[in-house]
Design a protein that fits this description.
The structure holds two protein chains of two kinds.
Chain A: E1 5-10, H1 19-31, E2 36-41, E3 78-81, H2 82-87, E4 99-102, E5 108-111, E6 113-116, H3 118-126, E7 130-133
Parallel strand pairs in A: 1-2, 1-7, 2-3, 3-6
Antiparallel strand pairs in A: 4-5
Chain B: E1 3-7, H1 16-23, E2 29-32, H2 47-56, E3 58-62, H3 63-68, E4 80-83, H4 85-94, E5 97-101
Classes of the chains: A alpha/beta, B alpha/beta.
Chain lengths: 134, 102
């Protein structure tokens, strides 16, 4: 099977709707098919990655720890739109630190998260074969 | 006849808070729940408008929904009070009506 470039666009906050959880599940299932996968978090999607989510009080599963497993599935191109973070009063410090281990460099730990401007994001989106929006 | 308005949408996703503020009566109160709690956090694009609303009306935010989203109780706009579920019930009983904005 030819390798295709898949981009998952995440634009929803984590618990108010089921989109965020559904997207993460699709990404993990898709990761088993050995494709080139990128994730974008923009608009309210950036809220999915905030640190310290504690959901006991709302009776819902906290799925945010699952994001740290993405690196093990070689999902290591995670793009955060800078403008979306800024208008929400957030910085990268407020988000989880996601990493992956590079097999070609003696399993060196590398950052999965890349902060990009709208302009840079535009090029990333244009470069994809398939875009799935959540 | 005082009315409690509950807002459950992110202010960046849908402007139900803005619509509420256009029509709310002077003795109305606002409770931010679910994704509506993002409006209560400091430093956002809407923080000034929210602070202005909080100076005119009683504005509350549900603590459990803040915690679920990784938002801290002490990083919210001045003038907004954090309530728990019991406080939510109290607000409902203290007001004559509830308008649940969707």
């Amino acid at each position: 099977m030819a390798m295709k470039k898949f981009l998952y666009m995440n634009r929803r906050a984590p618990y108010g709707t089921v989109y965020a959880l559904e997207s993460l599940e699709v990404v993990l299932i898709g990761a088993a098919f050995d494709q080139d996968v990128s994730l974008v978090f923009m608009d309210d999607g950036v809220y999915q990655l905030t640190k310290g989510q504690k959901t006991e009080g709302i009776g819902m599963k906290n799925f945010s720890p699952t994001f740290s497993a993405l690196g093990d599935y070689e999902v290591n191109k995670i793009y955060i739109e800078k403008e979306s973070l800024e208008e929400r009063g957030l910085t990268l410090e407020d988000l989880q630190h996601l990493v992956w281990e590079d097999e070609d460099e003696d399993w060196a730990e590398k950052d999965s998260i890349h902060l990009v401007s709208s302009e840079e994001l535009s090029k990333i989106i244009a470069d994809q074969d398939v875009v799935l929006s959540f | 006849m005082s009315m409690l308005h509950t807002i459950n949408k992110s202010p960046f996703d849908r402007d139900s808070l803005g619509s509420c503020l256009r029509v709310i009566a002077d003795d109305g109160a606002i409770l931010l729940i679910e994704d509506g709690v993002y409006a209560a956090t400091k430093g956002t694009r809407v923080a000034d408008a929210v602070a202005s609303a909080a100076s005119k009306y009683s504005v509350y935010v549900l603590g459990a929904d803040l915690s679920a989203r990784g938002m801290s109780d002490d990083n919210i706009v001045d003038g907004i009070s954090v309530v728990d579920y019991d406080g939510f019930v109290d607000l409902v009983t203290e007001h004559d009506q509830v308008n649940a904005w969707l």
